[in-house]
Amino acid sequence: MSLPSELCCPACRGPLAVEGVGAACRGCDRRYPGDRGYLDFLPDLGAAAGEGLGPRLMHSRVLARVYERLWRPFFVTVASSGLPDYRAEFEAVLAALASAEGGAVVDLSCGPGFTGRKLAESGRFSRVFGLDWSLAMLARAAADNRGLMRLVRGDVGHLPFKTGSLAGVHAGAAFHVWPDPPSAVAEVARVVRPGGAFVASTFAHTSGLRRHLEAAVATVGQFHVFEVDQLRGMLSAHGLVDFDCERRGSLVLFWARRAGAAAA
Ligand SMILES: C[S@@+](CC[C@H](N)C(=O)[O-])C[C@H]1O[C@@H](n2cnc3c(N)ncnc32)[C@H](O)[C@@H]1O
Question: Which residues form the Methyltransferase type domain (predicted)?
Fold first, then answer.
């Protein structure tokens, strides 16, 4: 096994060395197993992390099995008041990642991995990582991977990537279940190279009666619903600029660029 050059120890950011089918950190000597189809940077984290109903459901094996075909389309339909159009969503993600072409990208919180696999199949990137912290989701992603992505188990708050090593980051439908979105954004900004791309989707408030419904569902499901300006502010606070977005009801797809010019 070879280790992708973009990876580092998420605890001390030290260099990694291959150890059997896994990796060991040369800086702090931590060991990261790799015998399940992904490199596990959270070997001590149990099968359920995060707080609240919505975030904890992401660790269910039943949910992981039905996520792509039932769960996601259901929520997209309800939140957007229209039929899901995954092809259009993927084309918008690809367009937002145009400046990352030829470089390495990560599908952050990849779930069962369908977007990461399509990014890899597009042939536009030198390498595609899929990262999640749910054992159940990663088991699905690994089973369907066909060698397309480099899968890693990690926490968005402590990414196992070197600073400035990625050309682009995609985080589909995940912001609202992250335990600490600003810390995750800080990590995204750290790992993306200057001029690199970030594209993500989540729930954002509309107005009127619908706004009350959004707040009620978020309270029951214990996930976040954002204001678009809040997302814009969170990104710009960490040097992710040129924010733009597309809205469909309570869904928002938004993208930004890491400030600074790409190295020649
Ligand atoms: C709703 S799913 C999104 C899956 C897929 N990206 C999509 O577009 O539908 C949210 C994912 O975020 C992951 N997640 C939540 N908190 C995380 C964290 N702190 N670190 C890594 N992944 C996390 C969950 O395990 C879950 O797979």
Answer: 106-199
- Which residues, other chains included, contact 175 with Cβ-Cβ below 8 Å and sequence gap of 6+? 181, 184, 200, 201, 202, 224, 226, 231
- The residue to which tokens 């660790």 are assigned: 59
Residue whose token pair is 């199949």 = 121
For residues 45 and 204, is the Cβ–Cβ distance under 8 A? Answer: no
Atom of ligand 1 nearest to the CA of 174: 10
* Predicted pLDDT at 264: 57
Residue that wins the pLDDT comparison between 48 and 253 = 253
Domain boundaries, the chain: 37-258
Residue 224 has pLDDT above 80, yes or no: yes
So what CATH class is 37-258? alpha beta
Q: Is the CB of 188 under 6 A from ligand 1?
A: no
* Terminal Cα-to-Cα distance of the chain (whole angstroms): 31
In short, whether 40's Cβ falls inside 6 Å of ligand 1 is no
From the CB of 203, is ligand 1 less than 6 Å away?
Answer: no
When pLDDT is averaged across residues 179-193 and rounded to a whole number, the result is 97
Looking at residue 48, what is its pLDDT? 67
Q: What pLDDT band is residue 220 in, cutting at 50, 70 and 90?
A: confident
Q: How far is the CA of 232 from the centre of ligand 1 (A)?
A: 20
Q: Which two tokens stand for residue 8?
A: 């580092």
